[in-house]
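Handout, section 4.2: multi-component inputs.
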Amino acid sequence: MTIQSFLINGLSVGYAEADILHDLDLQVPSGKITVIVGANASGKSTLLRTMSRLIAPKKGEVLLDGKSVHRTPPRELARTLGLLPQSPIAPEGITVADLVSRGRHPHHSLFSRWTRGDDEAVDAALNATRTTELADRPIEELSGGQRQRVWIAMVLAQQTDVLLLDEPTTFLDVSHQVELLDLLVDLNQARGTTIVMVLHDLNMAARYGDYLVAIANGRVHAAGTPEAVLTQDTVRQVFGLESSIISDPTSGRPMMLPIGRHRMQSKD
Amino acid sequence: MTMPSSTLDHIVSGRRLRTRRYRMVLGLLAAVVAAFFVLALMVGQSVTPAGDVLRVLMGENVPGASFAVGQLRLPRALMCILAGLSFGLGGVAFQIMLRNPLASPDIIGITSGASAAAVFCIVVLSLSGPIVSIVAVIAGMGVALAVYGLSFRNGVAGTRLILVGIGVSAMLESFVAYILSQAPSWSLQETMRWLTGSVNGAQMAQALPLLLALVVFGGLLLSRWRDLEALRMGDDMAAALGVRVAVTRVLVIVGAVGLIASATAITGPIAFVAFLSGPIAARMVKSGGSLLVLAALVGAILVLVGDYVGQFVLPSRYPVGVVTGALGAPYLIYLIVRVNRAGGSL
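Output:
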């Protein structure tokens, strides 16, 4: 059981004149999967980056378990809060096991020695992401889906209670998207890890998120269960798109079908 | 389906193998440095027996060997090692931090900044001694800051910094050439020192300040090795792992510029050693420890061998920078072609 949870109060973030987030309030439930959705440039990525302290806010605060994310020493925070950024870089020629072991960074100082616990964390991370078989392979040889699983293993080796992911499925085809999101649900259920991620695909968001946050113009437009958030009105207001919402025959979660201007069946 | 314990054993043995390989390469490089050091002491215009060399090192007066070994070869070989370590370490730190082999201090103008300052002090102001090194270090920092500032637009992009650096470097090199052209009484050797780097006329008194710089600035860089390793995965990933990216940047710049400028102030900009050492080290070992020490040793080997080849192997005598320059230029062309095609990292 984890008790970590985000509480965001009056958060404003921006460069120079233009604010990207305006006075944003949000509460993220602990032990759940929260998905942030929104149009391009709505500020959803900025919100996630601010929550992971990559960006400092102009105003307001991000509290994780009651403590300000931006005022916690970075190394200490990195033992509680893991982040997979959008495009991490694998050092040339590095093997999977080696890359994953770099997730142990916040647990080490200059002279500390590698311990049994470090090896166990790496092993567990590889197992959880089913990448154990790939351990000795160089990253360059892997497919996009495998590579993304390895990066998740690296963040898991960090052993944090909270995991943030910035569009983890962007470059994956649909089967690898589902595989990756299933993996995240496994982690959430097995370890109670609080997961917060930005996803582009609304239907994947509704399918895999316990809690959806729709961002528009730097504010939280709607937040709640997928059923409460994924409505025709929200899609219209957040994405400027007419849509119909149906129930996913497999999961019972809402599904958004865009209407668009063409290919409509004429009604009698 | 494998048992969890056996996969853990596999992880452990894989890690041990990486560490072992790393240490092997480290030991090998150190041995090569030592071997070339001994060679440089024993073999010059004439061959001095190992026993005589040892007796000179112990402080005995050996007729026929004391001058050649003690006054000529030893300071020169030591200077090669110290300068090589400094260039190699400073270069690879920049390359790792900016994740680009072209971001080497000798490409982006830091070496030429230190070089220009040293030439200005020596030729125009007639200064000598430690003050030249201090001014060179300050100038190197200034150029680093200027290049950083000029390439700043919503953060520093690697390519922009490199292009700005190449421009600044070209300006500073023409400044050096101009000053040297105004000093016609200077010997060709001295001119070559400031154009390509040379260890001609190295003295023991020069080795000490460089050793001090290596301990202070090199120690600073080595203390950041974990953070530098994390930075190889991108600034965001490093920050997510708890690295203070901005602080680490400043420390690494101070350390690397300090090393490069101190060495440049004494030997001149030994061409391409900073640029070559990191990539060579990175090809020898993928992981298992820090690239920093390996690149430093590679730098020492490059300068030792380059100087030896320049003195005794080529038909006429050349300063070390001519030899390392001849090695580095083709690699630079190769890199530019490859980076253009793929967007390379170290």
